[in-house]
Design a protein that fits this description.
This protein has about 160 residues and is an alpha/beta fold. Helix content is about 35%, strand content about 20%. The protein has a seven-stranded parallel sheet, sandwiched between helices.
C-alpha cells in the first residue's frame, strides 16, 4: 500500500504541460498569453511569462495593462514580481505555479512548476522547435495537452 501511494503522489506532482497553437505571428501569441494570464489570475495562480527578449517583455507588459478595460492584471517585468512576472531572463525567482514559455528552449528548471504552457505561433522555425519541445516532454512521460486554437482564437 505504501509503495502504491508513493507512486501516485509522484505522478500527481509531475508538471502538466499544455501546448496552445494559434494562427498568426508573435503579436497574436501575446494576445493569447494575455487571456491565459487573465484566467490564471482569476484562479489565484502565480504566473511567470518567459519571453525571448526585452522588447517582447515590454510589448507583453503594455498588452497586459490594456488587455481588458474592466480588469486589472497585477504584473511587472522581472521574475521577482507577483502574481504575474514577465521575464526574458532564464531565472524563475520563487515562482512555481504556471510557466508560460515563449522562448524556444525549455528552461532546465521547468519541472518546479505545477503547469507549463507552451505557446506556438505561425513562424516555421519556431513551430519546429516547439514540436521538438513536445517530443522532449513526451519522451519523459510528462502529462501533455494540445489545444489547436488556429481556427477559433481571434485577438
Amino acid at each position: 500500500i505504501c509503495a502504491a501511494k508513493s507512486v501516485k503522489d509522484s505522478a500527481q506532482s509531475m508538471t502538466n504541460v499544455s501546448f496552445y497553437k494559434c494562427q498568426g505571428d508573435l503579436t497574436v501569441a501575446l494576445a493569447l498569453v494575455c487571456q491565459l494570464v487573465q484566467k490564471a489570475v482569476n484562479a489565484k495562480q502565480t504566473v511567470l511569462c518567459l519571453v525571448p527578449d526585452s522588447d517582447t517583455a515590454e510589448q507583453l507588459d503594455k498588452l497586459l495593462w490594456s488587455f481588458q478595460a474592466s480588469a486589472f492584471i497585477p504584473h511587472g517585468i522581472g521574475s521577482q514580481h507577483h502574481p504575474v512576472a514577465i521575464s526574458a531572463e532564464a531565472t524563475p525567482s520563487d515562482h512555481h505555479g504556471i510557466l508560460i514559455n515563449l522562448q524556444a528552449a525549455i528552461p532546465n528548471w521547468f519541472s518546479r512548476f505545477d503547469r507549463v504552457m507552451e505557446v506556438i505561433y505561425s513562424e516555421p522555425e519556431y513551430a519546429q522547435v516547439k514540436r521538438e519541445n513536445f517530443a522532449f516532454y513526451k519522451e519523459r512521460g510528462y502529462p501533455l495537452n494540445f489545444h489547436d486554437l488556429s481556427n477559433t482564437f481571434k485577438p
